[in-house]
């Protein structure tokens, strides 16, 4: 990555069944991000967020109360995996709609739990 790395965090509409599974499988840091979200959210979504992300069903992942935390957590997990692999530090963070919260969290403005 260059010295001017920009990370653009997606908003609602980017969700899909299976999101985050490859990061979860490949990165302990990403897996820990999903585990933390599952612990914070508990049974509020009717199932662990990680399971909803990885397995669906599609009608559930497309509900706003599930898609928004799913996109946020997947985005954070992705960034954690990048940092774990010594990827360059982002010099700019931006987000589209919901992604603004992700960008703010990644910039250190709010905690993971508060953003979630």
- Please give the share of residues in helix: 55-70%
Category by helix and strand content: mainly alpha
Q: Let me know the number of strands.
A: 2
Residue ranges: pLDDT <50 for 5 or more in a row? none
Kindly provide the radius of gyration, computed on alpha-carbon positions and rounded to a whole number of angstroms: 13 Å
Mean of the pLDDT scores? 93
Summarize the biggest pleated sheet: 2 strands, parallel
Shape assignment:
globular
What is the N-to-C succession of helices and strands?
A: EHHHHHEHH
The helix count comes to 7
Distance between the termini: 28 Å
Beta content: 5-15%
What's the arrangement of strands in the largest beta sheet?
1-2
Quick tags:
116 residues, two-stranded parallel ribbon, 7 helices, mainly alpha
Explain the overall architecture.
The radius of gyration is 13 Å and the shape is globular. The protein is 55% helix and 7% strand. It has a two-stranded parallel ribbon with strand order 1-2. It is built from 7 helices and 2 strands. The mean pLDDT is 93. Helix 2 runs antiparallel to helix 5, helix 3 (49-55) packs across helix 5 and helix 5 (64-84) runs parallel beside helix 6 (99-106). It has helices spanning 21-26, 28-41, 49-55, 58-61, 64-84, 99-106, 112-115; strands at residues 6-9, 92-95. It has 116 residues and is mainly α.
């Amino acid at each position: 990555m260059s010295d001017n790395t920009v990370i653009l965090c997606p908003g609602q509409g980017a969700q899909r069944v299976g999101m985050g599974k490859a990061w979860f499988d490949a990165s302990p840091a990403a897996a820990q991000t999903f585990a933390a979200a599952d612990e914070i959210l508990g049974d509020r979504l009717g199932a662990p967020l990680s399971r909803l992300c990885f397995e669906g069903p599609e009608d559930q992942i497309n509900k706003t109360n599930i898609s928004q935390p799913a996109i946020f957590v997947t985005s954070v997990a992705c960034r954690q995996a990048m940092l774990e692999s010594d990827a360059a530090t982002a010099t700019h963070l931006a987000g589209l709609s919901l992604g603004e919260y992700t960008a703010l969290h990644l910039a250190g403005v709010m905690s993971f739990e508060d953003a979630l």
